[in-house]
Write a structure and sequence with these properties.
The protein has 280 residues and is of the alpha+beta class. The protein folds into two domains: 1-81, no CATH class; 82-223 and 240-279, no CATH class. The protein is 40% helix and 10% strand. It has helices at residues 2-23, 25-28, 32-42, 52-55, 60-73, 98-104, 179-196, 206-218, 223-240, and strands at 134-135, 139-142, 145-150, 258-261, 265-270, 273-279. The protein has a six-stranded antiparallel β-sheet. A hairpin with a 3-residue loop joins strand 4 (258-261) and strand 5 (265-270). The longest helix is centred in the first third of the chain and has 22 residues, at 2-23. It starts with a helix and ends with a strand.
């Protein structure tokens, strides 16, 4: 009897872990097609599709082919995969490139629709001077100000109303700002809103955020609107699902892997994972 109970407990634990992982699909999505998969999953429309883990192993051409019919049935826009284009000497028709924008500080005047995504962006990091800052595992002190490592929070610890429909991600639109300052501003807002709903522990690194920006732009879509869609699904999931408040292992992390963001957060990247320290 004890053996049967033990097996049952293991099965239930595995089911709970799987449900939580599936529920927060949007927190794991790093590309537009992965976000579309999560939208379909939220609507229980992934019959015939591989698991999210298996889906993301495919290149974007295969992902688009897998998503096409269920996306059409659910009224979700699915732009074609961007193809490489021949560079033009005409500045009015040269295709969009985040890499060149970051390097030059200038914003392209053209649509991003035909530009393939540059994978180098995944490894882009925030630039920051952390000299004089002290790192102490779960705590960073800089210029006399302390920042505490923060993970996910249960709903009982959240401010009232943060999971309501009225609470928006509200990423700024890129109007006159050069790309890098814009991305840093938008990323700061993203981190703030994710922590606000108790999901500090599942945020994207800055590099993944920048990569998703280009991927969405390359498909001719609005970046801010895509994040509103993501945020609305995450709030619904968070309202009904529990989270673990266990802090991540920080072994091997150093202050050189961290950057100050909006004077309120230190974001640190370790092995592709994002760690957020919140000002106290």
């Amino acid at each position: 009897m004890r053996w049967i109970y033990g097996v049952f407990a293991l099965v239930m634990m595995g089911t709970a872990w799987s449900a939580q992982g599936q529920s927060f699909c949007f927190a794991l999505a790093e590309t537009y097609y992965e976000q579309v998969y999560c939208q379909l999953q939220a609507r229980a429309q992934t019959k015939g599709l591989p698991s999210f883990h298996e889906f993301r192993k495919n290149n974007q051409t295969i992902q688009a082919a897998l998503l096409r019919r269920p996306a059409e049935r659910n009224g979700i826009k699915l732009p074609a995969v961007a193809k490489p284009v021949v560079a033009s000497t005409d500045t009015e028709t040269t295709s969009f490139s985040v890499k060149s924008e970051i390097a030059t500080g200038r914003r392209s005047k053209t649509s991003a629709r035909t530009e393939p995504v540059d994978d180098y962006l995944r490894n882009t990091s925030l630039i920051a001077d952390t000299s004089g800052c002290l790192y102490r595992t779960h705590y960073i002190e800089c210029n006399g100000i302390g920042y505490q490592l923060t993970g996910n929070k249960t709903n009982t610890r959240l401010r009232s109303g943060v999971l309501d429909t009225e609470n928006k991600m509200a990423l700024p639109e890129q109007v006159d700002l050069p790309l890098q300052p814009y991305l840093e501003q938008a990323y700061g807002q993203y981190i703030h809103k994710m922590c606000e709903i108790g999901l500090c522990g599942v945020t994207m690194t800055y590099g993944k955020f920048a990569y998703l920006y280009q991927d969405v732009r390359a498909k001719g879509l609005n970046f801010s609107q895509r994040f509103e869609t993501m945020f609305s699904f995450l709030k619904k999931d968070k309202a009904s699902m529990g989270v673990s408040e266990t802090l991540p292992d920080t072994a091997g992390l150093g202050i050189e892997q961290c950057a100050l963001l909006r004077d309120r957060y230190f974001v640190c990247e370790m092995a592709g994972r994002n760690l957020v320290y919140v000002r106290q």
